[in-house]
Recover the amino acids of this structure.
């Protein structure tokens, strides 16, 4: 029986590998015949399809990264399966979602050496979990998880780092899957739960109004309200600590060449429409779906900042810790996941956006080197989180790592 099982597994693996190769070949052939289809890196495409990580080790990657002066970089955790969203727990542990494994992982540095030495799954059997958040209602500390088709929560004992009771799904009818399957959640200053759902496609007219939109709910999942639309794929969002304004990253559409449209940072206003699928970037009608939609130009909200096309901004985090230096005041760090639909790869770095007193936004590289000079991709940053001690954590779903940045004198 064991021999039969091993043969079946070996046969299944061969079939899976063959299907992957055929799929990669199909993508390669498509680049020759589909207008606007450019591939930045076939390794990135293969990673996205198969989950296979970077061929480099995490520490070798970290050694080759370039960090802005005043910061130091180390590897906090490695050998993780596609780590995505990060959240610091009340006792300093770091939570990370792993969508392919259906799990939420708790990482702890119990000996204070700057590396996670306690790595354990605290929730499993979830459907592509992505967004994670913590909310204390005064009686219970809840861990919230956004799965691809639902949002659930479980009570937590953060002293032990263990769930208390069963995981319960509160929102159960989210539109599943599609081209953008991730779901992101955060609690706002108003105590409400905010949720983003990406579009099901590159460019199309959606039948479900909750796609390409941001919603908000009561903590128990009731009172669904759509507050912003036309957001093609807003994976990251956060509030400014100085004014409680809500900003969200957004990925522009593909198949329109290397340099258009820009990816976006949007200031979210209740009831706002942000253009997709009819308008791209700063008031440009879409060549596929924009015809006859000129009237929307007057009501559509343009970005507060435009990133280069296909850079894929994901996680955004406004710096809040009291020990941050002057250069990180009124600043958000943004993870640029990097391009796939581009003839030459671009993005693949962490940048700092800084707001001056007049609200003008400037940009500066903070962590680069994920894209080598020979155009080899060795990492793809996803999310950013601050620790209780001011450490800055960055997830990399290509290398399977979490990096730790520290301020140094």
């Amino acid at each position: 029986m064991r021999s039969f099982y091993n043969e079946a597994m070996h046969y299944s693996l061969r079939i899976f590998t063959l299907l992957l190769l055929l799929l990669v070949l199909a993508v390669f052939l498509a680049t020759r015949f589909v207008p606007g289809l450019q591939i930045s890196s076939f390794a990135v495409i293969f990673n996205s399809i198969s989950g296979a990580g970077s061929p480099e080790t995490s520490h070798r990657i970290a050694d080759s990264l370039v960090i802005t002066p005043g910061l130091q970089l180390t590897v906090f955790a490695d050998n993780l399966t596609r780590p995505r969203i990060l959240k610091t727990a009340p006792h300093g542990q770091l939570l990370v979602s792993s969508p392919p494994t259906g799990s939420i992982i708790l990482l702890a540095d119990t000996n204070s050496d700057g590396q996670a030495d306690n790595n354990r799954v605290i929730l499993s059997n979830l459907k592509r979990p992505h967004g994670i958040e913590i909310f204390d209602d005064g009686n219970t500390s809840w861990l919230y998880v956004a799965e691809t088709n639902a949002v659930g929560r479980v009570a937590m004992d953060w002293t032990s780092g263990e769930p208390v009771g069963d995981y319960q799904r509160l929102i159960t009818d989210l539109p599943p899957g599609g081209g953008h399957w991730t779901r992101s959640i955060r609690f706002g200053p108003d105590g409400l739960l905010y949720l983003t759902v990406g579009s099901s496609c590159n460019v199309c007219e959606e039948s479900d109004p909750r796609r390409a939109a941001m919603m908000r709910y009561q903590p128990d999942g009731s009172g669904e309200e759509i507050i912003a639309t036309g957001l093609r794929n807003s994976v990251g969002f956060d509030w400014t600590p100085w004014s409680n304004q809500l900003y969200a990253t957004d990925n522009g559409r593909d198949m329109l060449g290397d340099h258009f449209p820009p990816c976006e940072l949007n200031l979210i206003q209740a009831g706002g429409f942000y253009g997709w699928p009819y308008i791209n970037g700063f008031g440009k009608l879409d060549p596929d779906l924009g015809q006859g939609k000129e009237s929307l130009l007057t009501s559509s909200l343009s970005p507060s900042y435009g990133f280069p096309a296909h850079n894929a901004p994901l996680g955004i985090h406004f710096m809040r810790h009291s020990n941050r230096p002057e250069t990180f005041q009124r600043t958000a760090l943004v993870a640029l996941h990097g391009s796939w639909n581009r003839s030459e790869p671009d993005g693949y770095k962490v940048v700092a956006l800084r707001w001056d007193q007049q609200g003008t936004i400037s940009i500066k590289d903070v962590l680069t080197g994920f894209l080598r000079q020979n155009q080899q991709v060795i990492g793809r940053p996803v999310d950013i989180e601050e620790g209780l001690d001011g450490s800055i954590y960055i997830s990399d779903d290509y290398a399977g790592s979490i990096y730790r940045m520290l301020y140094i004198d």
In short: Residues 54-407 form a domain with the Neuraminidase fold (CATH 2.120.10.30). The first strand starts at residue 66 and ends at 67. The helical segments are 2-33, 42-50, 58-64. Residues 265 and 305 are 5 Å apart (CA to CA).
